[in-house]
What we know:
Blueprint: H1 13-19, H2 40-50, E1 54-57, H3 66-70, H4 77-89, E2 94-98, H5 101-106, H6 108-124, E3 128-135, H7 165-169, H8 173-188, E4 194-201, H9 213-226, E5 232-233, H10 242-251, E6 255-258, H11 263-273, E7 280-284, H12 294-303, E8 307-311, H13 351-361
Parallel strand pairs: 1-2, 1-8, 2-3, 3-4, 4-5, 6-7, 7-8
Signal peptide: 1-17
Keywords: Glycosidase, Hydrolase, Signal
InterPro entries: GH (IPR017853), Glyco_hydro_5 (IPR001547)
Amino acid sequence: xxxxxxxxxxxxxxxxxxxxxxxxxxxxxxxxxxxxxxxxxxxxxxxxxxxxxxxxxxxxxxxxxxxxxxxxxxxxxxxxxxxxxxxxxxxxxxxxxxxxxxxxxxxxxxxxxxxxxxxxxxxxxxxxxxxxxxxxxxxxxxxxxxxxxxxxxxxxxxxxxxxxxxxxxxxxxxxxxxxxxxxxxxxxxxxxxxxxxxxxxxxxxxxxxxxxxxxxxxxxxxxxxxxxxxxxxxxxxxxxxxxxxxxxxxxxxxxxxxxxxxxxxxxxxxxxxxxxxxxxxxxxxxxxxxxxxxxxxxxxxxxxxxxxxxxxxxxxxxxxxxxxxxxxxxxxxxxxxxxxxxxxxxxxxxxxxxxxxxxxxxxx
Length: 364
């Protein structure tokens, strides 16, 4: 989604880590009440139950960011229903959807009610949901209320981090974040419409590096305290973040990752992550400019039985049809869409792509 230095190969530090003993979190003592991390057998049972997940990172085309998606004033069930219908029509069965702690902070029950409404809509289309809590990408500051208008031709001009710089400026925010995560997890811990919890998107992005480690460690601890019936995971995305990568893969119930590279490098990443012997979901891929395409990546993911969650469903206010670092200031149509499958009226960006997706999904 966010940088051009995405996970390419993890064969070095990650493969070494996989060959080591199980992490301490798996070691039970008399003082520890319950298993924190799933066993490989539990993870495989989850994979067998859910089969091949395929879908998109989804926010409705009428929302510029997570807050506009979830705040009461701009929550848009009609658009959500329409656009998830288009996804179901081409055989997609899973969406990855970002939350934000500010939407909870200003309207705790309201957010959970809207989450439930979203889940009802998705479920009516046969679509499972991956919810994402924290995120180190894009704009560092944010506020409740009316969100900014898109900057013409700028990729994700209004997307916001969570918690972003605020946690470093106000360390006491950690108490709010803990209450938020535990409240949401407790409310939906046995909800079969949710297939997985993605605790933290791309920790270490935006130059944070290991500054993100304390929150990463904390959010896993909070997740283990609630221990929902769904798996907990944080995806690896950048080879250079070795400390974060090691912690993420050793503490996730299932292995998730991002890769926006072509087929050879993507396959190399898959091969290195197989060492963990757990189900895998690619929670971000497909950037046409980078030769990460439905045509050359989705068949690999299906063959390997790896969940295939591309970035973007319908072109809209997020502007992710534009490339990361190639703004078009007049807002004119990019010569090649970076992400997204559909125009706002539901017509495909590429009929060839949609035909390929349907050929892989509708035979399932």
